[in-house]
Design brief:
Blueprint (H helix, E strand, L loop, with lengths): L2 E11 L7 E6 L20 E4 L9 H5 L20 E4 L1 E4 H17 L4 E4 L7 H9 L6 E5 L5 H8 L4 E5 L5 H8 L4 H11 L5 E7 L7 H11 L5 E8 L30 H5 L4 E3 L1
Parallel strand pairs: 2-6, 6-7, 7-8, 8-9, 9-10, 10-11
Antiparallel strand pairs: 1-2, 1-5, 3-4
Helix pairs in contact: 2-3
């Protein structure tokens, strides 16, 4: 039985696939998007998060710490008088996660939903994810993914899915690498697999001001996915200024390579030209 690292399980989510759902967030991501709003999902292992803005510097955490550098042991958490410390990331076996999902899967099914796997990038834990998916074949199974993985991994995991939400953040390869740290060749190849397949899917575009919120990017994406039989819609997700709120909690600095105060440009007409339904979330 494989072990994975989960950093959150949200209940009653309504924007992560059809119906009312559970969303399971798996740790680890190969991208480093300038606008990432889940910095605690980037690294693969459990890590300490501290609400430093509210810390009074009482020193209780240092009194109990027995390590020169943090190993996310959690010994400092119960002694914090303001409860400002927590571990992001819990190691779970596939069986443990299956049981947790099944506790409320019947309830979500009554509302047309199921479970969605997000991240981080859930495909970084492909073997663990596959075991979980195989253990819940009667539950509606969805994924939110960047699509950045090898083709064989993508095909193997999506075989067990009922619904896929895949990001095409930037169509231009050079710009994609500039703002996410990786080339988009694998992503577009896996998007083509969806376009040629039968699994219902959604393309998501996070709208980043001055980066990808322009006609050229929208039109290039629309051309790439136009005519796909299983495409349900394109979802446009405007950038939220609160994206950098958690960076200090994991000892990172939020330094977006764009102006977060700039308003995003949103247009659904381009997708309509190609017969694609679009929605702004």
């Amino acid at each position: 039985m494989r072990e994975g690292v989960v950093f959150d399980v949200e209940e009653f989510t309504v924007f992560d696939g059809p119906g009312l759902r559970q969303t399971v967030f798996l740790k680890g991501c190969p991208l480093r998007c300038s606008w990432c709003h889940n910095p605690e999902g980037l690294s693969g292992g459990p890590q300490l998060m501290v609400s430093t803005a509210s810390c009074t510097g009482c020193g209780k955490c240092r009194e109990v710490c027995r390590h020169e550098t943090c190993i996310s042991c959690g010994e400092c958490i119960p002694v914090c008088p303001l409860h400002l410390r927590r571990i992001a990331g819990e190691r779970m076996t596939s069986g443990e996660l299956i049981r947790r999902i099944r506790k409320s899967s019947d309830y979500y099914a009554r509302y047309g939903g199921g479970v969605t796997f997000s991240g981080g990038e859930p495909l970084m834990q492909a073997d663990f994810l596959t075991e979980v998916l195989c253990g819940i074949p009667d539950v509606h199974r969805a994924i939110e993914t960047s699509g950045y993985c090898e083709e064989d991994v993508f095909r193997r995991v999506t075989t067990h899915l009922d619904y896929v939400m895949l990001d095409i953040k930037l169509f231009d390869a050079a710009l994609h690498k500039m703002y996410t740290g990786v080339n988009n060749e694998r992503i577009l190849r896996n998007a083509r697999i969806l376009c040629e397949g039968e699994i219902p899917f959604v393309i998501r575009i996070p709208l980043i001001p001055g980066v990808n919120d322009n006609e050229e990017n929208f039109r290039s994406t629309a051309k790439w996915i136009a005519g796909a039989r299983a495409l349900i819609k394109v979802e446009l997700l405007p950038y939220h200024k609160t994206a950098g709120a958690k960076y200090a909690m994991v000892e990172k600095e939020y330094r977006p390579a764009f102006d977060p105060e700039q308003a995003v440009w949103v247009s659904q007409k381009i997708f309509e030209e190609y017969g694609i339904r679009s929605e702004v979330l």
